[in-house]
Amino acid sequence: MSVPAADVEAIVTAAGQGTRLGLGPKAFVVLAGRTLLEHAVTTVVSVAARVIVAVPSAELARAEDLVGGDRVRVIAGGARRIETLRALVGAASLPWLLLQDVVHPFVTKELSQRVIDEARRAGAAAAALSNVDFLYGTDGTLRAVPGDVVAIQKPLAFRRADAARGFAVADGTASGGVVSDLGAADILALAGQSVAFVPGHTMNFKLTTPDDMELAQRLMAQG
Questions:
Q1: Is 69:24 a contact under the CB 8 Å cutoff?
Q2: Among 5, 37, 159, 161, fewest CB within 10 Å belongs to which?
Q3: Long-range contacts of 26-34 (CB under 8 A, 24+ apart)
Q4: What is the DSSP code string of 157-195?
């Protein structure tokens, strides 16, 4: 049995309200008898020394009851994803961070470990899938042929110091100190750190719509 890395802290975004999914706050949506929050924590706690999860501020006690413990800390997230990411990075203390999102319930321990290993080599890494179709803009212009672009999945691993530096750059360049809703890869880019990719999996899809949830339930039912 592998031992969680002592220098890796997992940070889990779970503060979304799940408006498009229509089932209430994402963290507490139930899939195969367990909440998405429980699914996420179970996976990342197997590869990280500690875990920090960010949930809606009104749901702190509920999340604490579900996943709180010696190695799992629950904090309040923000109204926007960048605010939640900032809170998680600020609460972390270990050198390496593994970012997971509760809406990716099919992330595995093995994929998480591969992302961590690649991040140690390249500075930052994420699971990703190459496009297999021809992609067009809404104006009908061909934008990418198969293999030209990738869709970043979760998890994403990076140095905590790089994320902190990226936020500092963003704050310094934003008007009035207000940062637009950037993603983690965008914040790392501001710090000069690019993201390397490891092969993701088509099963590692994001739960966004009721159709996604229906598919996830069918997959779980099939084991």
A1: no
A2: 161
A3: 26/102, 26/103, 26/207, 27/53, 27/55, 27/56, 27/59, 27/63, 27/102, 28/59, 28/62, 28/66, 29/207, 29/213, 31/105, 31/207, 31/213, 31/216, 31/217, 31/220, 32/217, 32/220, 32/221
A4: EEEHHHHHHHHHHHHHHSGGGPPP---HHHHHHHTT---
H/E stretch holding 149 reads none
| Residue 50 bridge partners (DSSP) | 9
User: Between residues 182 and 30, which one has the greater pLDDT?
Assistant: 30
C-alpha to C-alpha distance for 32 and 105, rounded to whole angstroms: 11
Tell me whether strands 96-101 and 34-35 are parallel, antiparallel or unpaired.
unpaired
Q: Which domains does the chain have, with CATH numbers?
A: 5-221 (3.90.550.10)
3-class DSSP assignment, residue 15: coil
pTM: 0.90
In tens, the pLDDT along 101-148 reads 999 999 999 999 999 999 999 999 999 999 999 999 999 999 999 989
